[in-house]
Amino acid sequence: MNGNNPYAGAPGVVEAGRPEDVDLSTEQKESLRRAVAGIVTRTESYLPEGYAVGSELSYGANGPQATVAVRPPVGHPVSAGFSPELDDLEAGLDDDDRTEVAQGLAASAAAQVMEAVGDDLEPTAR
């Protein structure tokens, strides 16, 4: 049974599977908050009214984790989560990556609305 335990190992030997605690500096936390807030703002800019966009930050044993989610007016919510490396936080998250995440979320949320509504709508004008 010891082989199935991720913390198994001989006493005094490095504990396999045990994550190291990652402490972020105040500057790193603020950098992550700004980057995630920027993704939220960009996502909102691609969507019409009626879509709710939010984010969540957590700092676990495996490092920082960020999630940005969109709840469309109809259909299922969509989200994107990522765990940036500490080096990325020092240098700042890449602007192209933030734009790509925002565009992907907006497109996925729009697709959820289209899927929920279907093709049965009558056009209101021609």
- Average predicted local confidence, pLDDT: 79
Distance between the first and last residues' Cα: 69 Å
- Topology-level CATH name: Double Stranded RNA Binding Domain
State the helicity in percent bands: 25-40%
Number of domains: 1
Q: If strands are numbered along the chain, what order do they take across the biggest sheet?
A: 1-2-3
CATH class: Alpha Beta
Shape: elongated
Residue stretches low in confidence (pLDDT < 50, at least 5 long) are: none
Largest sheet: 3 strands, antiparallel
- Relative strand content: 15-25%
Structural class: alpha+beta
Helix-strand pattern: HEEEHH
Number of helices: 3
Chain-wise SSE layout:
Elements: H1 26-46, E1 52-60, E2 63-71, E3 78-82, H2 86-91, H3 95-117
Antiparallel strand pairs: 1-2, 2-3
Helix pairs in contact: 1-3
Task: Give an account of the 3D structure.
With about 130 residues, the protein is of the alpha+beta class. It has one domain (about 20-115): Double Stranded RNA Binding Domain. Helix content is about 40%, strand content about 20%. It has helices at about 25-45, 85-90, 95-115; strands at about 50-60, 65-70, 80. A three-stranded antiparallel beta sheet has the order 1-2-3, with helices on one face. Strand 1 and strand 2 (about 65-70) form a beta hairpin. Helix 1 packs across helix 3 (about 95-115). The longest helix is centred in the last third of the chain and has 23 residues, at about 95-115. It is elongated, with a radius of gyration of 20 Å. The model has no long low-confidence stretch (mean pLDDT about 80).
